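Record 1 of the preview.
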Amino acid sequence: MSNLIIAPIVLPAVVGPFILMAIRFHSDLQRVFSVASVVLLNIIALALLWHTMDGSIEVYELGDWPAPFGIVLVLDRLSAMMVLLTTLLALPVLLYAIGSGWDTRGRHFHALFQFQLMGILGAFLTGDAFNLFVFFEVLLIASYGLMIHGGGSKRLRAGVQYVVYNLLGSSLFLIALGTIYSVTGTLNMADLAVRVAALPAEDTALIRVAAVLLLLVFAIKAAVLPLHFWLPASYANAPMPVAALFAIMTKVGAYAILRMYTLVFGPDVAATQGLVGDWLLPAALLTLTVGSIGILGARELGRLVAFGAITSMGTLLIAISLFTPQSTAAALYYAIHSTFTAALLFLVADLVIERRGGKLIPCPAMPQSGLISALYFAGAIAMAGMPPLSGFIGKLLVLSAAWPSQQVWLIFAVVLTTSLITIVGLTRAGSILFWKSHDRSVQPPEEEEDDIGKPMSPELASAPVPGLAFVSVFVLLAGLVALTVLAGPVLKYTEATAGQLFDPTGYIETVLQRR
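->
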């Protein structure tokens, strides 16, 4: 089984260059190889998850060099869950891009898609802090290419802002890693856990500085206020299928916080004790508040969904910042829910934008508006945390985990108030898009422009949605329904995952056993 751990990284790393060099002029073959790769990744991810069900931890040593001298990949409950979540998201998003024709609007979509998966899956599997940085850069480069797919000046400006802001985060990441290495002499996560815990109190100042820098870096990736400015414009101006895939990218930041601050800078490490809760909880509450206000004030559908992704991260990070096994289990459940919900709404937004434009203004009804509106309101219910979908269960779990906290009433007030604001904002947008659109006296703007700066095609605006695109959206909705129905087994797995995170002895011993 240990040899299978590297497969989620190697497979897209091989398929991406093959598409780029061998079949870049054959769009049908690109689609076949890309879909086959993602399907195979799902099978591999299921096998990896099944292997961790009994709590097993597996290590793959590249070049047969033992840790901490060589690069290692580590499979535990958390990494297996995040790998499967990524592959489950990637398949309907890829099928939607094919069904809607988005993959043909620019060059190298499928190759970039594979490289993006390589970076994300590598970040979840690596057991080395420096290679976490390397995979961050891989996914950053690939995501920039995907973001500007299709062209357009607005998209290019948003892409430049996205890259500059994330390069700033990469610079801080390198500084933090250099600081950690200068103090400990290692960047292997398991070895770091041992050495940081053994540091004398007088030598921990630099480690605390490095821990703060890393928290800033991961906060940038997770779009935590006030480091969230890159996300609304970037996600709103990216192709909507790409933005749907990006729903998992903010979770990479949340994953890194969980991994580093339970393993390396754990709650028992005196030098960094209380760091996550003291810094992250206020920022998460503000993130949730600003995101919900952004939903209420949005004038474009893409920005509305982007702010919805920010509110989801705020709720998720509130749970993480409480830093208990119960809150972490709730956070992991909510991470699954929020990933599928954001992706669902981004794809629904694309269905709307392609046929009536992205501005929230009344327009004549579009084809299949009844079915599209039903999908929108299902996504809105999920994002707002209303019953009967999994968002309601997720928020209940977060609020239940907050009960022992000293800030319980503040957390309750913010979560419940922002939920109401989110409901109002999403309902307002939906009524403009689907109810006021039936007013035939309202005429569309003289020249509505789509999200790449070109006039909308009247033929496209009146065309029915391709069947494959609808199937992809329904698959994501089915994922939310399944998460609701199977909430018990999923929560049981996340609770076991949280227990494994807060007792990292098994992880450390497994990685360092050959040393």
